[in-house]
Automatic annotation (TrEMBL):
The lineage of its organism: Bacteria, Bacillati, Bacillota, Clostridia, Lachnospirales. Keywords: Oxidoreductase. The keyword Oxidoreductase applies. Belongs to the short-chain dehydrogenases/reductases (SDR) family. InterPro entries: NAD(P)-bd_dom_sf, SDR_fam. PANTHER family: PKSB (PTHR24322), RETINOL DEHYDROGENASE 10 (PTHR24322:SF736). One of its GO terms (molecular function) is oxidoreductase activity, acting on the CH-OH group of donors, NAD or NADP as acceptor. It comes from the Bacteria. This is Short-chain dehydrogenase.
C-alpha cells in the first residue's frame, strides 16, 4: 500500500504507544483517522492532539475484548467516513505468570485483548474491504514473543504466536481469492510503550483480585520485571516510521530488533532437529 491520502485508518489501542505512533504517521500521510482505546482519558488527549494538527479524526471509546464494542468501532468508521482502508489491530496486554498459577480470568482477558480482538475486527472489516475492491492493508500487532518463546509468560507467548499464525493463515486465504488486501504482522522486541501499565486498562469483568496470586511475590515480581524491560527498551519515536515503511514495501513480517534473529533461527533449527526448549541455552 503506497497511496494513503484521504484513505481511512482504523487503529485500536490508539491512545498511546504503538497505536498513537502509527496514527501520527498516518496523519502525516493525510489519512483520516478512527482511533479506539479503552482508556477514555488518553483517547480524548489523542483525538485532541490530531485535531490540533489538522487531521480528520474520530475517537471511539472501545473495549476490544468484546465483539459488540468492535462492532461499534467499525460502525463509527463507516458512518463517519464511508470506508475502511487500513486496519491496525494494535490493542493488547502483557500478563506474566506460569500456567499453574495465573488466574483463569487473566487468560480470558489476554486472549480477548491480544487475539480475539483481532479476529473480531477482521471478521467485520474484511468483508467491507472486499466489497470496496480498492487496495487495503491489515496490520496485526504481535511481538517478537510470537516468533520465539521464553519462560515466565506463557499467556503472552500463546496469544502472540496465535496472532502471527492468524495473520499468516489469513494472508493465504486472501491470496486464494485474489483479494486486493495485503497483510502484515508487527513483531517488535521491547519498546518504551505503556505496556507495563496494563492493569490500568483491565476491564471491570476481569477485576476480581480475590485470587491469592495477586498478592503473591510472583505477581509483584512480574510487574517489576515488566516495568524494567519496557522502560529500558528501544525508544518509541522511530516505531511509527518503521511500521509505515514496512506497509509501503508490503512487508509481511515487520521486525525492529535484529538482536533476536539468532533466537528465531535457533528455534527453527531446534524444531527441525527435534530439540525441546532448553533454559540454559536461553539464559546463556
Amino acid at each position: 500500500m503506497k497511496d494513503f491520502k484521504n484513505k481511512v485508518a482504523v487503529i485500536t489501542g490508539a491512545g498511546n504507544g504503538f497505536g498513537f505512533e502509527i496514527a501520527k504517521e498516518c496523519a502525516s500521510r493525510e489519512m483520516k483517522l478512527v482511533l479506539a482505546d479503552i482508556d477514555e482519558e488518553s483517547l480524548t488527549a489523542a483525538v485532541s492532539y490530531f485535531k490540533h494538527k489538522g487531521a480528520e479524526v474520530t475517537g471511539v471509546h472501545c473495549d476490544v475484548t468484546l465483539d459488540s464494542e468492535i462492532g461499534k468501532m467499525v460502525d463509527t468508521a463507516m458512518n463517519t467516513y464511508g470506508s475502511i482502508d487500513f486496519l491496525v489491530n494494535n490493542a493488547g496486554v502483557a500478563i506474566s505468570g506460569p500456567v499453574w498459577e495465573l488466574p483463569l480470568q487473566d487468560w480470558d482477558w489476554i486472549v480477548g485483548a491480544n487475539l480475539m480482538s483481532q479476529i473480531y475486527a477482521m471478521k467485520r472489516v474484511i468483508p467491507i474491504m472486499l466489497k470496496q475492491g480498492s487496495e487495503c492493508h491489515i496490520l496485526n500487532v504481535a511481538s517478537i514473543a510470537g516468533l520465539i518463546t521464553t519462560n515466565g509468560m506463557p499467556a503472552y507467548h500463546t496469544t502472540k504466536h496465535a496472532s502471527v499464525a492468524l495473520s499468516e493463515s489469513t494472508s493465504f486465504d486472501l491470496q486464494a481469492i485474489n483479494a486486493n488486501i495485503q497483510m502484515s504482522v508487527f513483531c517488535p522486541g521491547f519498546v518504551q510503550t505503556d505496556l507495563h501499565h496494563h492493569e490500568n486498562h483491565r476491564p471491570e469483568r476481569f477485576s476480581d483480585k480475590s485470587d491469592p496470586y495477586y498478592s503473591s511475590p510472583q505477581y509483584a515480581a512480574g510487574l517489576k520485571r515488566a516495568e524494567f524491560v519496557i522502560t529500558t527498551g528501544m525508544p518509541i519515536n522511530s516505531i511509527g516510521m518503521s511500521v509505515m515503511n514496512g506497509i509501503e514495501e508490503n512487508q509481511f513480517y515487520i521486525l525492529t530488533h535484529p538482536i533476536y534473529n539468532t533466537l528465531v533461527g535457533r528455534r527453527v533449527k531446534d524444531i527441525l532437529e527435534g530439540r525441546g526448549p532448553d533454559l540454559k541455552v536461553l539464559r546463556g
